[in-house]
Amino acid sequence: MAELTLVEAVNLALHHEMEHDPNVVVLGEDVGDNGGVFRATVGLKQ
């Protein structure tokens, strides 16, 4: 099993849930193109 950082794991979990459930949304401050301060939401907009 590959080792992930906490931020990478959060990002993968968000990607997975958003791909499998169209009702999942991410709300919050600093969620956008740059992925936030820790870049946990990078790529979710696509």
From TrEMBL:
Stored PANTHER family: PYRUVATE DEHYDROGENASE E1 COMPONENT BETA SUBUNIT (PTHR43257), PYRUVATE DEHYDROGENASE E1 COMPONENT SUBUNIT BETA (PTHR43257:SF2)
InterPro entries referenced in this protein's UniProt entry, alphabetically: THDP-binding (IPR029061), Transketolase-like_Pyr-bd (IPR005475)
Protein name: Alpha-ketoacid dehydrogenase subunit beta
Protein source organism: Vibrio alginolyticus
Pfam families assigned to the protein according to its UniProt record, in alphabetical order: Transket_pyr (PF02779)
Entry keywords, A to Z: Thiamine pyrophosphate
Domain Transketolase-like pyrimidine-binding: 4-45
